């Protein structure tokens, strides 16, 4: 017998994905340690594969609950928005730790660094070459995702598809340029605290760009499948907020690490 809820909330049914996803993350953590120490990456690869599969099936469940089963009421959507904002706040604190490490070492360089920043023997990247181009690319992508957002609100599907597609292309271009920059960098992650803070901070930002690009690509597929409308597009709103967060973090990275830090 089917029962009807007399409240606006969506009580999620029991799901195996959180448990399995946590197991996949554990495999990635343990496998990464094994890979760094012994060069064996099999456990890490298994963990990555499990997490990717869990992400796919879990997102599929959420899309089904919102689009086809109609469980996402106004109250539920408001809760999702609050959750996304809190998640972005946690990401801000995550990157704050990297900036803290950078400024802790750069504002008062230790004797081991030659009492200089960048440390002696480290040749920093030119901030007015590839980093400046990447800044222009990422700022342009922020404009295109805003264009796509306004197009969705206005019910202009073709413009929304165009703006979102352009944002994804710019995100891929940014990742490609950063890969080239890493390949041609005159220093490595093992070159003192400068190399470690540079590659950890910019590398995690690059990972966030890849995640954001994937997020937007999922939204593009949903948009083409008529799953996003002017009234129902919380998933796209979350992805656009995340992308703007990535833009702002890059501005701080460029100004502090690439420009001031060089």
Automatic annotation (TrEMBL):
Where, per UniProt, does this protein localize?
Answer: Membrane
State which residue ranges cross the membrane.
Answer: 20-38, 44-63, 84-103, 128-148, 160-180, 192-220, 241-261
Asked if the keyword Cell inner membrane belongs to this entry, the reply reads no
Give this protein's Gene Ontology molecular function annotations. Answer: cytochrome-c oxidase activity
| Topology with respect to the bilayer | Multi-pass membrane protein
What are its GO cellular component terms?
A: membrane; mitochondrion
Q: Does the keyword Iron-sulfur apply?
A: no
Q: Heme-copper oxidase subunit III family profile domain: from which residue to which, for each copy?
A: 5-262
One Pfam family from the record = COX3
Question: Which SUPFAM superfamilies does the annotation name?
Answer: Cytochrome c oxidase subunit III-like
**Which UniProt keyword terms apply here?**
Membrane, Mitochondrion, Translocase, Transmembrane, Transmembrane helix
Function field: Component of the cytochrome c oxidase, the last enzyme in the mitochondrial electron transport chain which drives oxidative phosphorylation. The respiratory chain contains 3 multisubunit complexes succinate dehydrogenase (complex II, CII), ubiquinol-cytochrome c oxidoreductase (cytochrome b-c1 complex, complex III, CIII) and cytochrome c oxidase (complex IV, CIV), that cooperate to transfer electrons derived from NADH and succinate to molecular oxygen, creating an electrochemical gradient over the inner membrane that drives transmembrane transport and the ATP synthase.
Q: What is this protein called?
A: Cytochrome c oxidase subunit 3
Task: Please tell me the species this chain comes from.
Answer: Corynactis californica (Strawberry anemone)
Organism lineage:
Eukaryota, Metazoa, Cnidaria, Anthozoa, Hexacorallia
């Amino acid at each position: 017998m089917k029962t009807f809820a007399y409240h606006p909330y969506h009580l999620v049914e029991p799901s195996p994905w959180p448990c399995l996803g946590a197991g996949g993350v554990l495999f990635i953590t343990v496998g990464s340690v094994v890979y760094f120490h012994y060069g064996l990456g099999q456990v890490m690869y298994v963990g990555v594969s499990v997490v990717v599969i869990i992400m796919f099936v879990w997102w599929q469940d959420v899309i089904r609950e919102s689009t086809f089963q109609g469980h996402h009421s106004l109250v539920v959507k408001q809760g999702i928005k609050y959750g996304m904002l809190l998640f972005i706040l946690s990401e801000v604190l995550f990157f704050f730790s990297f900036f803290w490490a950078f400024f802790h070492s750069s504002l008062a360089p230790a004797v081991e660094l030659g009492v200089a920043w960048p440390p002696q023997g480290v040749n920093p990247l030119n901030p007015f070459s590839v980093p400046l181009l990447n800044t222009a690319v990422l700022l342009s992508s922020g404009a295109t995702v805003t264009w796509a957002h306004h197009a969705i609100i206005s019910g202009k599907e073709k413009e929304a598809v165009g703006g979102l597609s352009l944002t994804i292309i710019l995100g891929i271009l940014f990742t490609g340029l950063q890969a080239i920059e890493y390949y041609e960098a005159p220093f490595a992650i093992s070159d003192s605290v400068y190399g470690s803070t540079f590659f950890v901070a910019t590398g995690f930002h690059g990972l966030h760009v890849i995640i954001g690009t994937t997020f937007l690509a999922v939204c593009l597929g949903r948009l083409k499948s008529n799953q996003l409308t002017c009234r129902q597009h919380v998933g796209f709103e979350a992805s656009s907020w995340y992308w703007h967060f990535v833009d702002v973090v890059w501005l701080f990275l460029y100004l502090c690490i690439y420009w001031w830090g060089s």
